[in-house]
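Changelog-adjacent note: as of this version, every example in the card shows the full chain rather than a window. The one below runs 189 residues end to end.
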Amino acid sequence: MQEQSAGAALKGSSPHSRPRRSLFWLVGLVAIFAGAADLLTKAWALRNLEEGVAEPFIGSFIKLQLIFNPGAAFSLGSGSTWIFTVLSAVILGVIIWYSTRVTNPWMAVLLGFIAGGAAGNLWDRLTRPPGFGRGHVVDFLNYNDWFIGNVADIWIVVGAIVLIFWKLFEEDDEDVAAEGSVPGSGKHE
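Full-length structure tokens:
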């Protein structure tokens, strides 16, 4: 019995073991990096690109083309910019709230990328013309004329896709361990 308790404590599943610490700081650090990368690349695009003019970047598949997007992806909802502002602020708030509970470093990194991307686009909606909460997002990466996006969009999409696939195929080790089984083995102790 004592061996079993020692083994459980080493795995972190004992009720007497210390709880894992939140990685909120890591979410914040990654979000700052992602948001800064987005804002810096948008500033570069504003200084170096002419609005509407496409220039080759990676062959003809990805071009540089500056536009000001009032809507969401594919300029959907361009007449309802304020809705995207509110939605972005709510999503960012939920991520910040949830981040205080994150103990997995990979989850922290993914949430940081999503938060940084959301913050970058929210910044545009709050500070760019035509006005507060209705600002148009700076987009400049033209993907084979399918859509035009920015670095924030890359962080959001990649972070969300990886997070979805991870959650779809993840074994919930914490729940399994709490039930008294060995994670990944399907056997109970």
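Structural remarks: The two ends are 11 Å apart (CA to CA).
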